[in-house]
Amino acid sequence: MISIEGLTVEFGGRPLFDNISFVVNKKDRIALVGKNGAGKSTMLKIFAGLQQPTQGNVSYPKELTIGYLPQHMQLNDGNTVLEEASLAFDHIQQLEIELEEVNEQLATRTDYESKEYHNLIDRSSYLNEQFLMSGGGNFLAEVEKTLIGLGFKRTDFERPTNEFSGGWRMRIELTKLLLRRPDVLLLDEPTNHLDIESIQWLENFLSTHANAVILVSHDRAFLDAVTTRTIEISLGKIHDYKVHYTKYVELRKERREQQIRAYENQQKQIQETEDFIERFRYKATKAVQVQSRIKQLDKIDRLEVDEEDNSSLRLKFPPAPRSGSYPVIADGLEKSYGDHLIFKDATFTINRGDKVAFVGKNGEGKSTLVKCIMGETDFKGKLELGHNVKIGYFAQNQASLLDESRTVFETIDYVATGDIRTRIRDILGAFMFGGEASDKKVKVLSGGERSRLAMIRLLLEPVNLLILDEPTNHLDMRSKDVLKDAIKEFDGTVIVVSHDREFLDGLVDKVYEFGNQQVKEHLYGIYEFLQKKKMDTLQELEAVSAAKVEASAAKAVEATTTTTTPTPSENKLSYEERKELNRLIKRLERQISDIEQKIERMELEKASLEETLATPEGSSDPALFEKHGKMTKDIENEMSTWELITMELEEMKTRA
């Protein structure tokens, strides 16, 4: 679909890409990988048409559609969540508006025999057909399903978008992008603002419903679940592996070993040639041989070895001061903001040396509980910190507390103690502050760079309770490995709020699940927790959550009109819940029937077009081929919509 030929991009005379070529095929799932600054985001911008290469071509069919989700974006205010997400079907809404206007004119005009009136009838018929063929009757169901999959509640749909944080607004943009079903999806760090459940939903969606996908991510588990091809950008070149990320790491290691051997052999050959030239440079009898060796040396294509992988660097924390046996004890803990209950009856004990994870959907109270532990917010119930507990806390605002007048090196040198001071530059290199970057002033660093620096600074302080809130968002693979190994060896207590399953795997031995205004303790690791919860796709969990919200709304309406409320028996739906569920089932069945009829009509039209294309006149008409391609794509989109709604209907029926 997309062909890259001789692509070269230069910045300040330095080549970022040097004459690279490759092809993106239909249904490819590609991971773009490489160290920070290698050009991954630049490559996505070139694909999206937002940046032009210095040389080379990017070619693709005229009708190809591309959707691009950057790391940072400008978001619009003024709409509700549902209205903003529905802009993905803006063309359908425009059809609907025009259709209403035409029908209104038909209802008010009385010149039934006029040419203008008959033109309006024709226009109404055309618009109505286009509206039905575009899925006009069911696009809201798909919008709602996608929003719920990405973590929104039905009660959020009518809230203004400006009430949400940047991360949640990014989800709205992602929703619009997924709903448009472009031929190629370009995703730059899509998981940075998603929780574990939403990431798993996105994995399933991309694996089963997306067309071609090209993504940049530092989430190893996400890459393995979604991608089947890995393109590494290194030293201006690309290395194309037809495998998922984990297998690529193995193959890359083998390739690098081969590179090193070839490089060493070449260096030996160059040294021997230079020694010969130097030894016989001034001997007339050897002049011919010397000139021959000089020409031979000039012709050598010098090999380069990929950047050194420092993931084996070991960062060891200072010994943790001994704390009491129970650093955190909660009993009947409750937190509300006004009338909005976050969680209640939270009762748990974190033992000295525990490494635990706080997981759950965003907005369920993970960071709020951290604030309670930190003493930054009030609460009800009992929460005690153990004897001699010294907390090291990493959150996004920690980066804003750094001294801007210091350099990167000075910031770390100021808090480092003991032998660690001799290895500051190695540590900075592992966290992407190698070379000249260590001499930058803090005031010129980006937000992501400041976050990484704050993380390093925190991890060098002598504490015995580390609380890390989303510590991996701005770290690449190497830095995450360094951080993970350091935490595993830390002899204190650790609380990690994270959505990165691979990072948590093998790190934590206890999981606290936040959801439904509760905090539940699970005495096992992250993947065992996910398996126990049967959250491989989380569709069942999402459907249950949605049903509970709808049931609560139905109960609230009933409470205003009657004094008696049916009491549901244990593990059974109440009368109102069943009534609401049956209503939803009937609506989905109607939508499925409409789509099936629409697909049947489209298939007939396509078959008729194919008969025309088989004639000499039809086969020479480019417009007919273009129409056939569009029709094929429209049918595929309708089939995808049919699959989504059918899956939702099956889930509903299992609960009915």
TrEMBL record:
Point out the coiled-coil segments of this chain: 85-112, 571-612
Could you list this entry's UniProt keywords, alphabetically sorted. ATP-binding, Coiled coil, Nucleotide-binding, Repeat
Domain of life assignment: Bacteria
Q: Which CDD domains match?
A: ABCF_EF-3 (cd03221)
InterPro entries xrefs: AAA+_ATPase (IPR003593), ABC_tran_Xtn (IPR032781), ABC_transporter-like_ATP-bd (IPR003439), ABC_transporter-like_CS (IPR017871), ABCF_ATPase (IPR051309), P-loop_NTPase (IPR027417), Val-tRNA_synth_C_sf (IPR037118)
Molecular function via GO: ATP binding; ATP hydrolysis activity
Which positions fall inside the ABC transporter domain? Answer: 2-260, 328-541
Q: Which family does it belong to?
A: Belongs to the ABC transporter superfamily. ABCF family. YbiT subfamily.
Instruction: Please identify the protein, giving its name as recorded.
Output: Probable ATP-binding protein YbiT
